[in-house]
Amino acid sequence: MKRAVALAVPAAMALSLSIAAPIAARAQSDTFTEGQTRSIEKIVKDYLVSHPEILLEVQDAFEKKAEAKRGEATRSRMPEFYKSLSGLKAELAPLTIGQGDVTLVEFFDYNCGYCRHALPEVVKLLDADKKVKVVFMEYPILSQGSADASKVALAAAKQGKYFEFHKAMFAAGRANKESALKVAEQIGLDMEKVKADSASPETEALVAKIGEIGKRMFVDGTPTFVVGDKVTPGAADYDALKKVVEDTRKDGCKACAEAASAPGAKDEKKS
């Protein structure tokens, strides 16, 4: 509730400005006298004080409108998103689990508690649906420790143990360079190679490329799932993931088709 009230403050300011602006303009044009302007301002202030719930209503309406605009912008970039994935197909192959007809993409951070809770749901989906494919997008936005863990994960991918590392890293708790290297050692990786690969320009570049894709898709929180034409933010459970996969399998993916038919797409597939 405190958070809701805090969020309402900007709305109150916006509301006050929206009311004050026309009042000031009219006052300047002599529509209202200075005394009348003060009286109107007092009426508005008294009303807001007597009915503070309106501030929450304004904030809610503002957030819904902003979310709708954001969703529209995200949907418009879906073909670009799938084209970017196609362009990184070789680099993302080691981060891809399954060989299915429907692809689930997850943006995640190793220090994200919601991602940790979502992992068993994703694993359950992979076990239950052999026709689904999951692409794990290393998206370390929470801390430097997250970024360090992602680089070690990509190094693990080079040794063919990405998913094993992925699951063990979440089980380890707090992610940072030290804990990631410890996990890498525990699963039997060549540690000299891990250290070299995690610090390589190639690894840095892939993390940056994935980060840019996420930003272009307005991904500002983890986990975020993309399946077909639908973006699902937050820790979706098995049933929710299963439904969006089944819907995509039934209805197809318009954005995928658009990306595939875009100029240059065929050339990318050949390369």
UniProtKB/TrEMBL annotation:
One of its GO terms (molecular function) is oxidoreductase activity. Transmembrane segments: none annotated. Keywords: Disulfide bond, Oxidoreductase, Redox-active center, Signal. Residues 55-250 form the Thioredoxin domain. It holds the Pfam family ScsC_N. Residues 1-27 form the signal peptide. CDD domains: DsbA_Com1_like (cd03023). This is Thioredoxin domain-containing protein. It comes from Rhodomicrobium udaipurense.
